[in-house]
Specification:
By secondary structure, the chain is of the alpha+beta class. It is built from 13 helices and eleven strands.
């Protein structure tokens, strides 16, 4: 750990040194330009020749320093990514140890048809594209039983493959699959009794989320996506990320659910795609990556798009339909200003007045800088062009965690 700290300090110092050297060379270059353009009354041909040689050397030094600076930047970025993943692994390991004493443990139940039919069902608690979710009791514990809609076409091989993948996934912000019945294509999940993010953001919900809680929710979702997107040997894309699929357990920890269209991804030379064909996107339109809709190729960036829309909802408390356009309109800034650089130049009082036009009215005492940061992040993540969306680990997670750390300290 001490060695990592030393490496980090060394990279930071290198970064600062290179930046300082670049500034010095740039200033020298500007001075030389001014000398070359000055009145030639006092200059000889030799003076000009020396100036040109010096200028060429300075330009060469500048180019070499620039390349060196980029290399150090890359080292700094790589170090940040390593630190992030290491931190997530440590958090995940601690959570796994805690699971040994929870109500379910991490044992997987392979259920027969008769065992599923014998389960005591209380009530229907959800409906999705795959099927209906019922509250049920398994081995004396309350669980969520998902059964397919009548007439739903499911391939046995595909179902078994998906179960084989999901039964091994354990993360504090992902719902745990604790059982399955191949005969009935039924799935048994841990029970999450405290409602959905959709309900908590609803205008009719009187128990509004605080800004601190919203940041923690954003961090939890991002943590789950980082985990899914970096699973070895092949990553997983959720594919249907939306507030109704984000539920809360007894301790108000939010978890991603409904992996109905999630798929294991494989790497190709040009993209990360389905490991098999899909006929059509089955997500929810307002959260669907436009590139996914056009190409039917699911990538991890599709989850980044949906996450961006959810970030905007956490800020505004509004429905997802055309939310991105609505935010840009209220910000009074061009749609290509996704970093909100023009907006940031406005006086604080003016920024607050503009933000009040779309920030959730149920929010009180929200910090202007953090609201701007989350809004900008939401706009960048939900960019229509997949290639222009930020990287989840090296960009999105770093910003979310910085806000989450500040919220935890306050």
């Amino acid at each position: 750990m001490e060695e990592t700290k030393d490496t980090k300090n060394e990279v930071k110092q290198n970064l600062a040194d290179k930046e300082s050297q670049l500034n010095e060379v740039e200033n020298t270059s500007e001075t030389l330009n001014k000398l070359k353009q000055a009145e030639p009354l006092t200059k000889t041909e030799k003076d000009y020749e020396e100036l040109d040689n010096f200028y060429c050397q300075i330009q060469k030094d500048y180019e070499e320093l620039g390349n060196s600076y980029i290399k150090v930047l890359d080292e700094n970025k790589a170090l940040k990514i390593t630190e992030i993943l290491a931190k997530e692994c440590e958090k995940f390991s601690t959570w796994i140890e805690d699971q040994a004493s929870n109500s379910y443990g991490i044992r997987f139940n392979e259920l027969t048809r008769s065992e599923v039919l014998a389960l005591k069902l209380s009530k229907a608690i959800g409906q999705g594209g795959y099927g209906t979710v019922f509250e049920a009791v398994l081995n004396g514990k309350t669980v969520a039983l998902k059964v397919p809609i009548k007439g739903c076409e499911i391939e046995n091989r595909e179902f078994n493959q998906e179960v084989e993948i999901l039964r091994r996934i354990r993360h504090p912000n992902l719902v745990t699959l604790i059982g399955a019945c191949p005969e009935l294509y039924a799935l048994v999940y841990e029970y999450l009794p405290n409602g959905s993010l959709e309900h908590r953001l609803s205008p009719t919900n009187k128990e509004s989320l605080s800004w601190k809680e919203r940041i923690k929710i954003a961090a939890a979702i991002c943590s789950a996506l980082v985990f899914l997107h970096n699973i070895k040997p092949q990553p997983i894309a959720h594919g249907d990320l939306k507030p109704s699929n984000i539920l809360f357990d007894l301790n108000n920890v939010c978890k991603l659910t409904d992996f109905g269209i999630s798929r294991v991804l494989k790497h190709t030379e040009d993209t990360t795609t389905f490991n098999h064909k899909t006929n059509e996107p089955k997500g929810t339109s307002s959260y669907e990556d436009p590139d996914f809709v056009a190409s039917h190729k699911l990538t991890r960036r599709a989850d980044v798009y949906a996450f961006g829309i959810i970030l905007l909802q956490l800020v505004t408390g509004q429905d997802a339909i055309k939310l991105r356009d609505h935010v840009f309109q209220k910000l009074q800034t061009p749609s290509d200003d996704i970093n909100l650089e023009n907006f940031q130049r406005k006086p604080v009082k003016m920024k607050k007045r503009i933000l009040e036009k779309f920030v959730d009215a149920n929010l009180v005492d929200w910090p202007i800088d953090e609201v701007v940061k989350m809004t900008s992040l939401g706009l960048r993540c939900s960019n229509d062009a997949r290639k222009n969306r930020p990287d989840l680990v090296s960009e999105v997670w770093i910003e979310i965690e910085s806000m989450n750390g500040f919220a935890s300290d306050s």
